[in-house]
Amino acid sequence: VASISARGLPGIPEIQAGEDLAQLILTALGGETPDGGQLLAIAHTAVSKAEGAVVALADVTPGERAVELAAQQGKDPRMIQVVLDESVELLRAERGVLISRTRHGLVCANAGVDASNSGGEETLLLLPRDPDASARKIRARLGELIAADPRAARAGVPAVMITDSFGRAWRHGQTDVAVGLAGMQPLDDWRGRTDAHGLELQATWLAVADAAAAAADLARAKDSGEPVVLIDGLGRFLTVEDGPGAAPLVRPLAEDLFR
Amino acid sequence: VASISARGLPGIPEIQAGEDLAQLILTALGGETPDGGQLLAIAHTAVSKAEGAVVALADVTPGERAVELAAQQGKDPRMIQVVLDESVELLRAERGVLISRTRHGLVCANAGVDASNSGGEETLLLLPRDPDASARKIRARLGELIAADPRAARAGVPAVMITDSFGRAWRHGQTDVAVGLAGMQPLDDWRGRTDAHGLELQATWLAVADAAAAAADLARAKDSGEPVVLIDGLGRFLTVEDGPGAAPLVRPLAEDLFR
What we know:
Two copies of one chain form a homodimer. Chain A has seven helices and 13 strands.
């Protein structure tokens, strides 16, 4: 019988640039050491803050296109400039939302740029420059810290996921997806395989990392300030190696039917 | 501290037309009675089979357009005809996949039509005619059966969700979404509200029902023949009333930027 469980970790403070997230997570877990059968899902905002992927609005000089789009959309032209800087292609600009393809290939609202307010200053939080590399780095640091206890080290290092909330083209509301990943296969491919009744399976290419990101977001109240969720029960998708990351979840431009 | 858990229910047999799903679920749960703090996520295929939302391929006569599309896409023209019958608008037909808007307003591959093989006959499973009504009906029947035990009845009736696996425009793989719902709010609206640090929240309109559907799909192995998953920990989204169903998750045509 398969089952999963997920819980938000309380007690993680507002993240500062340069912060050791792996250490903060272990501290938040108290005496408990996460193991190779567990997944840590981290909201990208925490990773972006720790990495300093932050732009102060006061430092941005908007160009002509940003000024024009901002006037059309009723937005701050400096914010629009940062979204354009993060984008390789603008797909739509309507009702105050820019939908673009980011440098990472992600198609999402405002290129994943979030308004923030750290230290009283108006800032924008970008997505991490390379979210898969960020996930690998946090996982490696967790491994280092866990290795300090040889008994815990034998139980393996948890997988690390970095999440963001994405809207959907044809559905209301947002769900979390995996933008960075280490130690978990992002997709579970059953194409051509059969089910318990010997029938070919219908839904056969499962975005298990995105499903785990969505599950993680249910395990915290949105106003709880809990950027990290610990998930149990996904062992069949977890790997000792870091693996291909979240990149395989991105549909390549050549396959895009909805540009 | 928020937390969720989800587990697939073993022991539900292949569903026949006319089957009492509520009774099958209670039987699968053994002595355990689900309560008003729990959500039952049911794969639409089980509901479609129980409701007889099934078409025998042998009974389908494809029209001219279906024959033409089938030749282009390398598909069975009878299957294409059924997809067209279920659709109000065909958005794309490429690489063997038709993406359309269904009668329910859902935008998905093949209008939610799945190949099946019940009783040795080649059949197609449609989406339930009115998945929100199906969810309400199953929930009402659960309520009837649970009411037989006055002690259990006081703990309330679980919410019921009907799920399907949808692809995504810009991401590989499928995740489950809620196509029918009773007893749960589909969206959690935080727009304009602030987080624990007094900052305006970024991801503010959460498709909690879709996130729960995705979580449910992680709680069963895909070849396990487990159409029903029981989820705990979503009490803050559950309601005594059946509520608006999954319909509010569908972005109306007028808001569609990607037709």
